[in-house]
Amino acid sequence: MAVDSTISSPLGPPACEKDAKALQFIEEMTKNADLVQAKVLEQILSRNAETEYLSKFDLKNATDRETYKSKVPVVNYEDLQPYIQRIANGDRSPILSSHPISEFLTSSGTSAGERKLMPTIAEEWDRRQKLYSLLMPVMNLYVPNLNKGKGLYFLFIKAETQTPSGLVARPVLTSYYKSSQFRTRPYDPHNVYTSPDETILCANSFQSMYSQMLCGLIMRLEVLRMGAVFASGLVRAVKFLQLNWRQLAHDIATGTLNSEISDPSVRECIAEILKPDPELAQFITDQCSGENWEGIIVRIWPNTKYLDVIVTGAMAQYIPTLDYYSNELPKYCTMYASSECYFGLNLKPVCMPSEVSYTIMPNMGYFEFLPHDDQSVSRDSPPRLLDLAELVVGKEYELVISTYAGLCRYRVGDILRVTGFYNSAPQFKFLRRKNVLLSIDADKTNEEELQNAIDNASVLLREFNTSIVEYTSFSDTKTIPGHYVIYWELLAKDSANSPTHEVLDQCCLAMEESFNTVYRQGRVADNSIGPLEIRVVKNGTFEELMDYAISRGASINQYKVPRCVSFTPIMELLDSRVISTHFSPAAPKWTPERRR
């Protein structure tokens, strides 16, 4: 479609009139960010004024920011959990939201080892779909002619559970892919996938990955961009190809689909795509049969212009692996979102991963910012939270949100640094999830959870009169899938009765059994996390570690063993002292049971 020559945008020339409207919407929202925020809060408080939660703060129908901040406290999940649990148990009264709760979105964060349940309402998907609709108009400013081909995106649904109320609880992207907004989305030539919806909506992870990879191989010359939600997902897709290329090539050569793919809807849609192509099958065999997989992405999909994956925060650890597989194709991060709320998008996606900044879209919810100093919020003297317009470039903040679905002044736990402003809307670099030590995929393990797992595993050592002197850890993403590595220094009081290799293997499993349900699902159902590894180091290793830290300026009086390490010299020191390695001999227990 030709673009009206009178239509323009400060962001750049739009690719089509639909894009022009999207870019204009971004301008309107960001130019009036503070006014939009005031209106959003007014709408949230007006509609939810009679809810049980807000009623107890005696707002007297006030909808202004000053009253709201002075009367409604900043909270975390544990504060809201009793209310959320009542909704999950079937209480249909207006507890948090005046609109009916339509489902729960399960957060990757956990509480007492279980996924957090985030209540949502039906209309929220219209708001989130609006943000999705802005992504390609922005990308089209930087990468032309994406309407000339397709995107190979590895997208999956995950296990869902049902609460006693009958409301479903599932990850936010599973909810989105099953929503009418996704399934009946209008055709957009700039945003066509190689994967039919049936392959994305297949609940079996192997069948879903296999069929999506097969479609991507068949349409390899049409692929202009490749992606997954997280960088770890794209790395896993390449590993899947390494393990399954022979069967995939066989299917393509013969035009018959692997009998392991049993989902009827998947078989039906693949039947329309898969035709015998011995030449393509031989090409795939030639590319995949060798040991060198460097640049495999651009060798098989030569027209790929960029990778669309999240490589910020914990996902930055996958950049070297993606560079190896793709010959350093550009990696673009497009949006910033969570189960609690969708926040914003990257208005300059063509940048280095270290330079990614997200612009907050002020219509998505009401946002406040807690200046970050690693101190917890005091209930006796709560801090003053800042609005969008009050933020300072270069400063770090913890994000606090209020949503249409009823979350009020809720601490998300994300730590952000302000990098600038677009019009009057702040732009942020995502730094990290607060208190997270280890993360491979969607899992987030904090120090308390790690310590609890160590404590549970140490019970197995008691009969051998052995204790754990010190420990530290790191997320090893050189393996595919990545896995947790724990370094242990042990003290055996009776060397003749020290723990056997098998017992230390069981310690690995005991730790995994102690981790939260997100970790265990990644191990069991999603195959996104590998078996946990314990590396036992020589006695005295952690004293050497302290000596090294002190030699670099650390105070001997204030030194504490880091519970997670990533600095190369420290890793090399630890690895040079390893005397035995142990892996979990089985997967931990996990089932998508009904929520109680």
UniProtKB/TrEMBL annotation:
Span of domain GH3 middle: 358-433
Record key words, sorted: Ligase
Keyword flag Transmembrane helix: no
Ranges of residues in domain GH3 C-terminal: 448-567
Ligase listed as a keyword: yes
InterPro entries: GH3, GH3_C, GH3_M
GO MF term set: acid-amino acid ligase activity
Cellular component terms (Gene Ontology): cytoplasm
Residues of the signal peptide: none
A Pfam match: GH3_M
Family, per entry: Belongs to the IAA-amido conjugating enzyme family.
Protein's UniProt name: Indole-3-acetic acid-amido synthetase GH3.1
